[in-house]
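U., I forgot to send this yesterday:
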Amino acid sequence: MEVSKSSRAALLPSFLYSPSSGSVESLHSLTAAPTPTETRVMNRGSMVIGAPSEPFGKIELFSPMHYWACAVGGVLSCGLTHTAVTPLDILKCNMQIDPVKYKSVSSGFSVILREEGLRGFFRGWAPTLLGYSVQGAFKYGLYDYFKKYYSDIVGPEYAAKYKTLIYLAGSASSEAIADVFLCPMEAVKVRVQTQPGFARGLSDGLPKLVRTEGVLGLYKGLVPLWGRQIPYTMMKFASFENIVELMYKHAIPTPKEECSKPFQLGVSFAGGYLAGILCAVISHPADNLVSFLNNAKGATVNDAVKKLGLWGLCTRGLPLRIVMIGTLTGTQWGIYDAFKVFVGLPTTGGVAPAVVPKNLD
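Result:
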């Protein structure tokens, strides 16, 4: 049996959507006759995912519509969740910048409430919403693209054998691009949240920052932001994919395709929460650096290390960030996968609906 180049290209990414434990032999199962519940693909050799409810019609896997759907899901999952935890973010940033004044979670909340009232807990919500919405669009929208791109480069055998490396490379590439768009909003957000009187929000904070530090001032924290976000996202995506796969293999007796959609979304939330804890720990030193550099004009990384110390970089504000990032990440994966289900795509990780590429007979 001879497989055309176009068919082979369409088949490559299927390891990332199959129950395979990493063996290339799982390819051959896709050539068998489909069951009535499986979805056939007969459109230019591409794979198509169908769903009982398809408000946008059938979506070809790895088509522009697929990536657009992932991008919209990323906007919803990142923009809404980061804005919702703005009070925790404000407290975390202030505990990192001024630990003497903001000694603990309870006393920190009391200080903010006493000095600024309830409005003080939502300073910087606008740059947060805009910045993380755009970041989520690029992060999630490009993740599946890079997964396929790197799978195409290494070929089916290595893509299956080293799938975790595919997850890591795909997430790092998407986050590196996403942070270029997040960085200006992050710079404004940190100043609004940690420097009382700097600005009321995005509308006056962004022009003031550009006026006082120039356009380059918006990107002063880009390298530390990469240092925080890229390891965070690599851990977030790779650990989530593997945790969900392990849950369906060892903790859930029912195959994923037989589980209800609400149950699958519950698994996405649980896997995301566990992944979020790992993300918080690995990215926390860089998070402290970002807060320090964006708050102190002209400060350097060496200044931050000297003032905070290595132990302070790794632990200051960490318990609060674990709670915040765990909840944030779990909710993000729940929202993201809920949107994917809504448009007819499978949830992320574990076992996906079977697909059959064209021209295999």
